[in-house]
Design a protein that fits this description.
Bound molecules: pyridoxal-5'-phosphate
Shape: globular
Distance between the termini: 55 Å
């Protein structure tokens, strides 16, 4: 079956006991045993829960992995990936990645003696230079948040594997509908499922998908030991949201493309960052590994534009953190999603106050453009 069909007819989509076409929500912590350790595969919901299992098999199927794991947030899922490492190990990671990932490395894992180096992970020489004898993981975000920098997953996975490092890809911006990192050579794919996968700004969740059983057993160990699991209600919400992932993303991507082109024609805009544009410096690489530019784009306003005035004058765009929802969201990364970066580093990687990120939703694209136009007209000094 093709992806669009598998979004609807996924493992567990029909309840085997009742024929219900939506999985039951097993709101339960423990399961009755018929003798000590004699049970039907479910013992305690931190380890396994039937509703969560439907979600986990669903995401594994969509991404072409062997197993899926659902966590209480994207950050819990990302942390589980880092927890596979040992004290003294080193990570090479994409420069300018999501602020929460930067924060968990610098404020939490550094205390456990994990070290890391940020580089442009598409620059082979820079990646080779960054690799050390103790490098055990290449952590990629492509497109990166918020400047949409692209990394060639297959090429960099080859390099990392030749040096015995695991390859993790944060696939939040693309979702399995547009990009499947495991098929390109990654070992683990990780998502903030709070975004496109949930799609309705009503759940915080994270997912990990693994390439083989050995990696699965490590992630399972972390999931059950640390316990940052997703509850059954939220698992069900994701299963419901994922069915419309394809139609949502196709529509939002079409609007994002139109908005990106419109922004390119505006004198108030210095630069547009969107891998669906021919002028994106790594558009070719992105096209080879993903099925579209996606629904997120960023742009840099000219310094003459009053950013606060622009952001607060919009009527349809919701000023908020997060992305990947039915409503269109506008964010100023420097003061919102990337506020945990030291300001000098933010400046160096180009996430300045004049960078604005858009997550395109499902409203009429003409209304979205008209709202941006009003905002820009009012904010030019
Ligand atoms: C690319 C990316 N990865 C991970 C996360 C963290 O996910 P969560 O907020 O679900 O913990 C985010 C959140 O914005 C994100 O944008």
């Amino acid at each position: 079956m093709r992806l669009k069909t598998r979004l609807i007819h996924h493992p567990g989509s029909v309840c085997e006991h009742t024929g219900a076409v939506s999985p039951p929500i097993y709101q339960v912590s423990t399961f009755k045993q018929t003798g000590v350790n004699r049970h039907k595969g479910f013992e305690y919901s931190r380890g396994e829960n039937p509703t969560r299992r439907v979600l986990e098999q669903y995401i594994a199927d969509l991404e072409g992995g062997v197993d899926g794991f659902a966590f209480a947030s994207g950050m819990a899922a990302i942390s589980a990936c880092f927890m596979q490492l040992r004290a003294g190990d080193h990570i090479v990671a994409t420069e300018g990645l999501y602020g929460g990932t930067f924060r968990v490395l610098s404020r939490v894992f550094e205390r456990f003696n994990l070290t890391y180096t940020y580089v442009d992970t598409n620059d082979q020489e820079a990646v080779e230079r960054a690799f050390q004898d103790n490098t055990r993981m290449l952590y990629l975000e492509t497109p990166s948040n918020p400047l949409m920098v692209i990394t060639d997953i297959g090429r960099m996975a080859g390099l990392a594997h030749s040096r015995n490092a695991l390859v993790v890809v944060d696939n939040t911006f693309m979702s399995p509908y547009l990009q499947r990192p495991l098929e390109l050579g990654a070992d683990l794919s990780v998502h903030s499922a709070s975004k496109f996968i949930g799609g309705h700004s009503d759940v915080i969740a994270g997912l990990v998908v693994t390439k083989d059983k050995k990696i699965s057993s490590g992630i399972k160990q972390i999931q059950v030991s640390v316990g940052g699991i997703l509850g059954p209600q939220d698992s069900w919400l994701l299963v419901r949201g994922m069915k419309t992932l394809g139609v949502r993303l196709r529509q939002a991507q079409e609007s994002a493309q139109a908005i990106a082109l419109w922004l390119c024609s505006r004198s108030e805009i210095e630069q547009v960052y969107y891998p669906g544009l021919d002028g994106h410096p790594r558009a070719q690489i992105h096209r080879r590994q993903a099925d579209g530019g996606g629904a997120i784009l960023s742009f840099r306003l000219r310094s003459s534009i009053d950013v606060d005035k622009f952001l607060t004058s919009l009527e349809i765009w919701t000023l908020a953190v997060s992305l990947g929802a039915v409503e269109s969201i506008i964010t100023q990364p420097s003061r919102m999603t990337h506020a945990s970066y030291p300001s000098e580093l933010r400046e160096r990687i180009g996430v300045t106050d004049h960078v604005v990120r858009l997550s395109v939703g499902l409203e009429d694209v003409d209304d979205l453009i008209a709202d941006l136009e009003n905002g820009l007209n009012g904010a030019a000094s």
